[in-house]
Amino acid sequence: MANQPAIDPMEQFEIHKLVDLPTFHIGKVAVDMSINNSVLMMIVGAVLIVLFFALTARREIVPNRGQAVAEALYNIIDRVLVGPILGPHGRPYVPYLFTLFMVILTLNLMSVVFAVGNIAGQSWTFAVTSQLAVTATLAVLTFFSVFILGFIKHGPKFLGLFFPSGMGLIGAILMAPIEMISYFVRPLTLALRLFGNMLGGHVVMSLFGSFVVALAIVGLSGGMATLAFIPSVLSFTMIVALTGLELVVAVLQAFVFAALATVYLNEVVNFGHGH
Amino acid sequence: MNAAVADFHTYKLIGAGLAAMGMIGAGVGLGVLFGNYLQAAIRNPAGAASQQTMLFLGMALTETMGLFAFVVSLIILFGS
What we know:
heterodimer, A: mainly alpha, two-stranded antiparallel ribbon, 4 strands, 66% helix, B: F1FO ATP Synthase, 88% helix, rod-shaped
């Protein structure tokens, strides 16, 4: 079996430069703005989002199909998350949460669609949200804008978040470090959740994809080995099922990211109000 | 590959496998979560839909623990 391709599920997460741009320097930092496959996918995602809303934002009273989809997506943020969790004070934050949701949703769904390219060894496809740098950027941006917003709105009183009420002075001082750790680990969990889900899903899909090919090659050698076609076909069915699962995960993770951002915002917006 | 490097590689693989065992807990947790949600939803179907957001939030938080184990395992495998 010399002609068999090596099974390497991590190969799909390699960055390839597609368009080489000269490196320039800002101060002492070298900046390489070359277009690689990750950047290309992000550009495609941005274009898709803008196109989608340019085509569907018609404001008709009887919506057509596209507008109905756009309104359904908006309702996920507005009616399901912000309404029940944040209440009326949360209205100004709907645009940010919706942008976050749409970016993650689009990139996730694109990574499921282009997973075909990953399995086929194309160098221009890439699952953007399975890169820790991207998810960490989104998470850190969300976390620190919420944290800074807390200080802008409530001033130093916002530090009361780390001192649980009803514990007495000594209990509050003892609990404060634990509360702080569990608070500042949030961007890490936010980033790792999206990253881990997408990475895990793609690794599993890629593994089953390589099983299909490897077992079919074994099966082609004839004789008893023809039986290897059975697991090959089974692996292919598995890919179909996994693609369905990945679609669910893609939507769910975008929703969960927005939901957790809403929950974090809730501590700032309704600070001291109870719930 | 000399013997020391081969040993290091072997232990690395064993370690990665052990680290991945942390995902058992996340699996149990998700089972408890969805099982209890279903039980409650069957007893009171009218109230089920309103708690779906909390279900997915709980799922995300539970899953994170498993993903930590997964990421640690990947760091052991592919980290330098």
